[in-house]
Amino acid sequence: MLTRDEAWAHLCSWTETDALRNHARAVEIVMRAAAHRYGNGASDEEAFGLAGMLHDADYEKWPEEHPKKIVAWLVDRDLPAVAHAVSAHYTKWGVPYDTMLDKALLACDELTGFVGACARVRPDGLTSLESKSVIKKLKDKGFAAKVERSEVNAGAELLGVALDAHITFVIEALRPHAAEIGLAPR
Predict the structure, then answer these.
(1) Helix/strand/coil (H/E/C) assignment for every residue in 113-169
(2) Burial letters for 58-82: b for 16+ Cβ neighbours within 10 Å, e otherwise?
(3) For the residues of 21-55, what is the DSSP string, one character each?
(4) Helix (H) / strand (E) containing 111
């Protein structure tokens, strides 16, 4: 199995901006929590975490080819389940969501980014952010306009959870790491 440190080094070799590195780390954090909520707990945590960390690893250098390069890299390292989840998260490919790993990555990626955007416009960051504020911002199409709202909703549906409960889950997973990922109070 690829170690977390090896995966992070690879991510950093392909991703130079703090913004995308922070997103990768945030999705990793949420996915590690998702392994315990939606997967098989500790036995799934590394695969879930690696998928969260590496899902956009090739985006900065090769946006037109995303996620082909990272999927190939994962396949070369004999991580087919992680490669499949990363493929499925790119909804334009139409890859089926076969496992909870696949479903969780779709459910956590866009929403984690959106929760981060919500926290960045608040003086107290994630400290007091609640799902109702996130839901209100989701309705404002001009706010974080690049976030695919359809993926946020589809992800919660795939997991079989209410959107507000999933938003709360993401916020609570991120909150202890707010300073590390740039979402602490200003």
Answers:
(1) HHHHHHHHCCCCCCCCCCHHHHHHHHHCCCCCCCCCHHHHHHHHHHHCCCHHHHHHH
(2) bbbeeeeebbeebbebbeebebebb
(3) HHHHHHHHHHHHHHHHHTS-THHHHHHHHHHHHHT
(4) helix 100-120
Q: How many CA atoms lie within 13 A of 65 on its CB side?
A: 10
Using DSSP's 3-state secondary structure scheme, residue 176 falls into helix
- Radius of gyration over every alpha carbon of the chain, rounded to an integer in angstroms: 15
Q: How far is CA 16 from the centre of its chain?
A: 18
Listed residue (149, 125, 154) closest to 137, CA to CA: 149
For 5, residues 6+ apart whose C-beta sits below 8 A from its C-beta are none
pTM over 0.70: yes
pLDDT tens column, 46-88: 999 999 999 999 999 999 999 999 999 999 999 999 999 999 9
pLDDT digits (tens, 9 = 90+) for 109-121: 999 999 999 999 9
